[in-house]
């Protein structure tokens, strides 16, 4: 019988496991239970994903989660999810959150534990911990693999590099300034 | 200019607000910050939704959230979401969670704070607090209005009533037993 | 050349057959031509499906059919299709049909041969033969595999069993009553 | 409260009715119960549709039905449904049914009462009654309004007319032959 | 790691290549750079496609392109794309373009270099070069493989052949006329 | 009768026009025929869109186009389309085009007139004119309104402004450098 549960075999794309061999392990994940190490990044925040890569049973189901931890003052820098809307719930602390519309309007708010905020599909958004204690948020996405691009890293640390002239024109900065940003984001 | 943000005007279906009048209030919600009253139901659990009905900016975006609180021993009884897959994150306590496949196999697990579990689209599922302290979970759905049907209530308390003969045949019980369940679920 | 017909090879999920090897057998099915045996079930109805499991050419096309036969007084007990809206056409006889909305309102009607009725996506619904002769209906679904859950069977005969406490709280019945229903639905 | 049933108000596109005013009449239709008049067309067949235009409750649900009746020798001439896959069930009689793939291969079969056949999304297809008695089929579509184009009528009777030169080149026929077909399909 | 780029391996349907082996060759195509040979067809036009068959990186992305060249007086005869809306941009020359609605209304216009025209999903449409010099158009489709059926060829040159009686009834022509069209479109 | 063409009435979201009032003007656009003024921007490129805002008939059809003109050395700076995959065809000149994957790999290529390149949904991408003459490209998107965010402008010129601290942390630059970029991109 054809299964109604399309659990990934992790070969040849995302094929489906027979129902008989599907188990609760395919649908659960414990990796969001502990805070990420916010000292491991220069921005003071750390994201941990619970996507189809960690939960095979999410295959074809169009949803996933992530946890983000923030040191005091920590920032989850501007990024996009190419395939998903996100919605975040503050687990603890206080966050300034915001997204920018295609009309270049910033929609932002400061939210505390238990409050939620929506980041519409594909739009640039960010969060930062405006409190003096650690903060944490749980985000959900309507994609099994939302496809995150952290914009400063994408632009200045891609490999091969984005042509320097493109960055200079985009930000109206000189080659020295481009190199300085690259050095700081991607130290040799 | 046509907006890229389809915030509901709440008239005539879900039409869109002009971008200029959209604000952060359309994308945020504080109603999940406090625990629901688990004494208000006979099953010892209480769900609070954060759907497009509460967050107008979710309109067309295909995602929403809910919080469920559970007294010790409390149960979120078997239900379906007709339009969504759900994924739950345990905020506190310990829950036995499970869903039944279309091959009538129960997939279940006991999970604790920080763990997540997936409830595939449309399948019957439940949670219960197996601990001795209150528990809470945050659920996300890939629909702006997931469409919940709590099955015992749907079958035994709908108005007008589901024909008694249908319930008798479905559960292979007599009319007395049907009436007893109705009385308890829907006391006059 | 890549085929435009994604007929299942029935290996490794639903891959596609080369066009050259596709034939009319992939797109037809004779299994709905004869009435199901309504004596084979305790509820007096029998469903026969014509899904992608029977018609390989339905793969990726998002539609399927089923035939349901009903003895006089027979019931197709409350069930859901997790992935589809259904629409039924009465082939013969008279049926009382209905679904319950998420606002717990029963929408029902008695229909005769040639009449159609819609069961919106994922909602609990049922039919019963209110006539004194056999009845039959043809249903169509907008999914190649609609995913049916007959609710009493799902709740009381899943394997492993749904925790007894969950059923007791959901229906507000005692352990004796749970066992009685289980025995009748799933005799040893 | 926002309804989960998007029944058309038939104003301003397809807006939704409040749940409270939705009734069984929005979800049922009796218009397929009687055979269409196969003498009313030159091709000896007559189609009757049960789409969102007849069943307001189908709005947003992505499914509809139609009944086609065929005189002996009658033909449902080659046509497409621009938005849907179709699946047909023979109610009575014997039909030769077929579709042509994008590789220009005809997939066809003769089917009798109770048999089903699939017409993949958008592909040109036809049926004809190869028996000596009337035939009838019930078709389902995975669109609330499948969008039918009967090809000979579309090409030769559109208003304004398709440029004569386009038809001459397409069919490699002369202006006299184009006019003859037009006259027969669309007698003045 | 699971790739976010589902480049086809061209085995077993459209599976995905690991990101590490994806290159710019998977996302580019030079085959539309030169005009098609409009002398190679009886209708005076020639289409060249840039679909997933030519650009493996288009797999799952839902878009493709085609170039059509037209001799003076050349016609791209009435056809459908079973899975896509098309939008055409005139590269050079002057084209009369049109589609027919399901209400049998022709919507047409003469457009010149730099102008665009839309052909809604699945509807019959055509173009012809009304100028005295060659013309060319670039079309885009919202499908990776739009599925084209040129209607006269589909109806009169499919293999096996569409039953002659079906064509006679559809176009209200005799067997001689059917054979004449077949001979001209598909010379032996 | 319900129209099959959902042409916007431009009131209350995107409602549909009756078929009788739909005309060819709803499906065509001449605004891409002339080159944009590449002197009007600091980056030496100018984009002109042909979306549902310009072509009402595109409503619900999921496709649109744009033309981009580039001065010699001009750059279309890194940007995203939040709702669409893009595919570009070079009308004239030579462009270096590229996108960055979610694994931070640059996929790029230099293409000339007649060549096409794909920019997968939501990913950061750019083009620049590497030739000594003007260049132009025609892009198609699988959305009626693809939702463009030019990243440097989004980050440094949104109103209200993105918090300075967020930009400093994201790019690892000081407040002076943030202000310098803002001044150049958004001169007072």
UniProtKB/TrEMBL annotation, chains A, B, C, D, E, F:
Binding site for Mn(2+): 79, 81, 125
Subcellular locations according to the entry: Secreted, Extracellular space, Apoplast
Domain Cupin type-1 residues, every copy: 40-179
Residues that hold oxalate according to the record: 76, 81
Gene3D superfamilies: Jelly Rolls
Pfam families: Cupin_1 (PF00190)
Keywords, comma-separated and alphabetical: Apoplast, Disulfide bond, Manganese, Metal-binding, Secreted, Signal
GO process terms (BP): plasmodesmata-mediated intercellular transport; regulation of root development
InterPro entries: Cupin_1, Germin, RmlC-like_jellyroll, RmlC_Cupin_sf
GO cellular component: apoplast; plasmodesma
Nucleotidyltransferase as UniProt keyword: no
Coiled-coil regions listed: none
GO molecular function: manganese ion binding
Reported function: May play a role in plant defense. Probably has no oxalate oxidase activity even if the active site is conserved.
Subunit comment: Oligomer (believed to be a pentamer but probably hexamer).
Family: Belongs to the germin family.
PANTHER family cross-referenced by the UniProt entry: GERMIN-LIKE PROTEIN SUBFAMILY 3 MEMBER 3 (PTHR31238)
UniProt name for this protein: Germin-like protein
Organism whose genome encodes this protein: Dioscorea cayennensis subsp. rotundata
Gene responsible for this protein: LOC120250207
